[in-house]
Write a structure and sequence with these properties.
The chain is mostly helical and 114 residues long. It has one domain. The chain contains 6 helices and no strands. Helix 3 (31-45) packs across helix 6 (94-112) and helix 4 crosses helix 6. The protein is globular and about 35 Å long. The chain starts with a helix and ends with a helix. The mean pLDDT is 95.
């Protein structure tokens, strides 16, 4: 079972879906730009070794990537550890960042084609 299937079994994680305004935004910007945004967001909000507001750094709305982060448990370092076994208290590696963005984009793509 892949991670997206496991996340769908969580009542909380499976409650997140892209809204029409999110889908419109993706249509306007394109998936490639959304992926760039995902990299920027992860690098700014999750990459650092120490995150002062960990657990509160990802809004619940405002950008498709934010919603995807909550749906994929990539919203904070605690969730990254619990669901993806990515250790806390270290700066994320390029490999870890690529993995996170891939999960986010896979989820967005599934939502987008519904």
């Amino acid at each position: 079972m892949n991670i997206l299937e496991k996340l769908q079994k969580s009542k909380f994680r499976s409650s997140f879906h892209l809204k029409e305004k999110d889908l419109d935004y993706i249509n306007k910007k394109g998936l490639n730009l959304i992926k760039e945004h995902a990299y920027q967001i992860i690098n700014n909000r999750l990459k650092p070794k120490i995150i002062i507001n960990d657990g509160k750094q990802t809004p619940m709305k405002g950008h498709p990537v934010f919603i995807a982060q909550h749906a994929t448990a990539t919203c904070c370092r605690n969730c990254l550890y619990k669901w993806h076994h990515i250790q806390k208290n270290h700066e994320l590696t390029e490999k870890e960042i690529n993995y996170i963005v891939t999960i986010i984009m896979d989820w967005i793509s599934l939502e987008y084609i519904k």
